Each structure stands twice: as C-alpha cells, then as structure tokens.
Amino acid sequence: MPTTELDVRYRNRRAAQIENAALRVTVLREGGHIAEIFDKRAAVNPLWTPHWPSIEPSSYSRDAHPQFGNGSDARLLAGIMGHNVCLDIFGGPSDEEAAAGSSAHGDAPVAHYGIESSDSALTMRAHLPLTQLTFERRIDLAAPRPVIFVATFVFTDRFAEPPGPELGSEGLAIPPGEEFEQELLHMSRRPNRVTASRGRRSRDRHF
After folding, report:
1. Is the separation of the CB atoms in 47 and 83 below 8 Å?
2. Residue 102: pLDDT above 90?
3. Residue 117 CA, distance from chain mean position
C-alpha cells in the first residue's frame, strides 16, 4: 500500500511525498509542481530539474535574487521544477495582468498549496485570488505497480458577468448567425450530428 509524508525537504524546498514499492512522487508546497517521479528500479527521475538553486516563490525578491531577472517570469523561474501547472494563462501575462500581479503561466505555479493525505493519496489545493479559482489535484499510486493516477479539478466560486449571451429560460441566447454553437448546446435534445462549416450548421457529418 502506498505511504505518504507531508513534511519533507526536496532540493531545499518544502515538499510532500507519496510512494510505493516502485515509485516515489514528490510535490512542492509552493508552486504545486510535481518535482519528482522517481523510478526505484531504474534509479531515475525523468522530470526536469533546474541546474540553478531553487527557492520558494514567496521568498523571491528582485533585489536579493537578480539571477532570475526582473521580468514577469522571475518568480516562476525561482521555484520552477519538474511538471509545471499553467493556470489561468499559458505564457507571459499582458502588461495589465502583470501590473495586477500575475506572473508567467498564471497564479498556479507560484501559489502556496495545502496538502493532505487520505486513502493513501495526496490531495493538493490552492486558491488563486487574482482569478477567483481553486485548483485541486489528487495523486494516487497503484500498489505495487509503477502507475500514477492524477485527477485535476478547477473550481470557481463566482462567474464573471458575460459580455454578450445571457442565461435565460431558453438556455444560452446565441447571437444571430452562430447556429453552430446553438446546435452544440442542444445536441442532447437532437439526434443529428453537426460539424462546423464556416460558422454555419451542417447536418449528418461526423466530427
């Protein structure tokens, strides 16, 4: 049966681990990265490890850590390791997003994660205040095989006001000329298949 450790150090970072006879998986408390998937038989971790010393994103300072640069990706570079989560953007933020505090690849890869164990699994959870999202990941190991199960969830506790279509008694109101989207929204009520043809409806074609 897999075992878990919630308070370990990995390459000078606060981390948690789950392992069985075949694998050891290490996740970081800051950034939520899957830093290590260590194959015990091969003695190999296939995930990327930076060649520079890694620090917690929360301890990054532009003045104290000039080696990471001064761009929007500096805080991410300070703590990135292994598998990186991109949420809610991929790549660098816009100037407006950067001014609001967003970093490269969004808030998730620099956030602080609460980690708990249950049923021989690790569950990680972080709230992303800039986007009002909650990111959750559950990691299970199949004992005693070298198999990892990862389930990922993204929750929001509020919806932004839609810029156009509004939810009404007839479902989403689709702007004129967008019959394809309307057809997709109501596919469960209609037996025919649809596909896109210059934004118009086309019946009886396979995707």
Report:
1. yes
2. no
3. 19
Half-sphere exposure of 172 (CA within 13 A, CB side): 16
Going from the C-alpha of 58 to that of each of 14, 48, 74, 131, 176, the distances in angstroms are 12, 21, 12, 18, 48
Give the contacts of 195 (CB within 8 A, at least 6 positions apart). 202, 205, 206, 207
pLDDT, average across residues 26-33: 97
Q: Which residue has the higher pLDDT, 83 or 163?
A: 83
Query: What is the pTM for the complete model shown?
Result: 0.73
Stated length of the chain:
207
136 burial type by CB count under 10 A (0-12 exposed, 13-18 middle, 19+ buried): middle
Q: Rg of the chain over CA atoms, in angstroms?
A: 22
Query: How many Cβ atoms sit within 10 Å of the Cβ of residue 168?
Result: 8
Looking at residue 160, its pLDDT comes to 52
Q: Please state, in angstroms and rounded to a whole number, the distance separating the CA atoms of residues 179 and 62.
A: 51
Task: Band the pLDDT of 5: cuts 50, 70, 90.
Answer: very high
